[in-house]
């Protein structure tokens, strides 16, 4: 179902273009993230997904276009502290700091809610405990983060983002490094945050079936431009995906879940079917 008036716009990106040095890699992209909705950003490697998320947070300010939050507040005008109260980004390849515990990293997520001298965050301890339990990192609380596995660390970063308690949650390939169980659990957590807490989620995913199962809307980027944008069924079509990924993609519906299912056709399928021994 398309977003309704009940789904307020939490982040509105309009005509956003982004460049590295002089090379423009995102071209005139307009996307809205709505309260209680999950928007998946998909597209081939290098199509601009991460760059776009970074532009939303002004880590990489757009060269043109506008990014505004609820009530038309421009992201560019907010103080770092106010911005950190409004949106958070779980980015790829964060480096684990040395000599810091899991609990300290998660507590760091509360920084925009603390007063100048570190006090004034009455809910902080409860929020930190809650998000550590939610993400399954509570048993690791006193471990040094630089001793964790990739998947454990990814969940700590997620907990730290959730501790920020923002209306907009941006996730860049959050299932990377996670084993099967935690991939499913993370996607469940994200869906619950949208459904139960009205969070607006923008998430970069490479797994198209995960996007189909999780998202309400999908943005398909190709070479920095929006190739298709809309409800899952309208974007995850064989035509769009075959054009975007330049490989034949079949789409059908999982009879058990009702979600769309995608399958890229490899050349060896053809050889197997035709009995070609090469
Ligand atoms: N720091 C940088 N300096 C110069 N060019 C960059 C930089 N970071 C990314 N790019 C280029 O910008 C384009 C978009 O990259 P981006 O990382 O946003 O794509 P992506 O869709 O997230 O890719 P992937 O799926 O591989 O993570 C690519 O051509 C990339 O090479």
TrEMBL record:
It comes from the Bacteria. One of its GO terms (molecular function) is ATP binding. GO terms for cellular component: plasma membrane. It is a peripheral membrane protein. The keyword Membrane applies. Keywords: ATP-binding, Cell membrane, Ion transport, Iron, Iron transport, Membrane, Nucleotide-binding, Transport. Residues 11-248 form the ABC transporter domain. Pfam families: ABC_tran (PF00005). It is found in: Cell membrane. PROSITE patterns: ABC_TRANSPORTER_1 (PS00211), ABC_TRANSPORTER_2 (PS50893). Gene3D superfamilies: P-loop containing nucleotide triphosphate hydrolases. GO terms for biological process: iron ion transport. This is ABC transporter ATP-binding protein.
